[in-house]
Amino acid sequence: MIYSDFKGKKLSRLGFGCMRFAKNEAGEIDQAKVNAMFDMAIAGGVNYFDTAYPYLDGKSELAMAEALKKYPRDSYFVADKFPGHSLPGPVDNSALFELSLRKCGVDYFDFYLLHNINEWSVKIYESAEYHILPVLLRKREEGKIRHLGFSFHGSARMLEELLDRYDGVFEFVQIQCNYLDWTLQDAKAKYDLITSRGLGVWVMEPCRGGKLAALDEANAAKLRAIDPAASDASFAFRFLQGLPNVKVILSGMNEVDQVADNLRTFERERPLGEAERAALDAIAASLKKGVPCTACRYCCAGCPAGLDIPFLIECYNSIKVGPALNSTMRLDGLSVDKRPAACVGCGQCAHACPQGIDVPGVLAELAELYAAGPKWGEMSKGRQDNIRRDLNMD
Length: 394
Ligand code: SF4
Ligand code: SF4
Prior knowledge:
The chain is of the alpha/beta class. It contains 18 helices and ten strands. Helix 6 (156-165) links the parallel strand 7 (145-152) and strand 8 (172-176).
């Protein structure tokens, strides 16, 4: 196993993501399978396990605790997340945190994150009424959180503002990073920003929800030509292994074969060669379906609607590759007069754009995609009900 150092802790670079455990025929988490996968991962050197309060309808924390209970507490690291984006309203944050500790069977979290900060959820996380951060800072002072960070799905610009505003508060940031999002979602800029502030980078979605682990035939053939025996996923992981400030790469494993393959990939450092990197760049280019906005902002000054055009195009490009939920959440964070439907179609931006992008056309399509897309408000109702029930709020 390859390890990284974070403040004197030896973290396995492969982290076990607990978001996608396999279910049995009854639709329940297959605990025997989870136990077997954990045993195999631990025998292979994995010592980092990542869950979150809402994962698997609140059952991920319990399944993780069950699989870890036979191991000494100081032999593994547990990461959990505060569900600010799923709250039904202001709640007793301390009680919710303590409940997660109990469900995970631990009395402290090695790593704890504010879950899914983006342009929409940041308003909750920063709200005085919701009072989230002060409670978590107190938990850190009490030793119940050893390291505090946040998982992030917003823009690089927003990340920079957050890092300025909370200088010295957070210790690590978890971002969606893989060889497709390196450019598609500006992961390179985010990685550089976090690194320049001296914080650790944690990676989620290394295979973009499985997309890069099961490539289409033409793209998979590019990788088979390089190494017929290597899995698609192994290339995605090796891309990330080459980024020195990536401390932990989370993989949501739900099959024993997947654990075995990942353990092989993380057995030793194997940086990508030039041909391999070129193949991944070509695959990433083929998977992008959006428009080549460089975020130069030449179009913004003259927009009569005052729209943040590069931000909207970033959401458009991301929705085109899918899934759409995070992007529609980010658009929810805008006031109605700043959303894509507010474009009046004057065409000023298209004239200003050095890339020749038909911005009004793109925004019209984005407005349709947004209107038809998933709605976080509706989707999070079940999560909100769970929190109400768990905190006896009904
Ligand atoms: S076409 Fe739309 S986005 Fe472009 S400048 Fe006019 S209002 Fe703004
Ligand atoms: S001018 Fe074109 S490339 Fe530059 S930010 Fe606007 S849309 Fe993007």
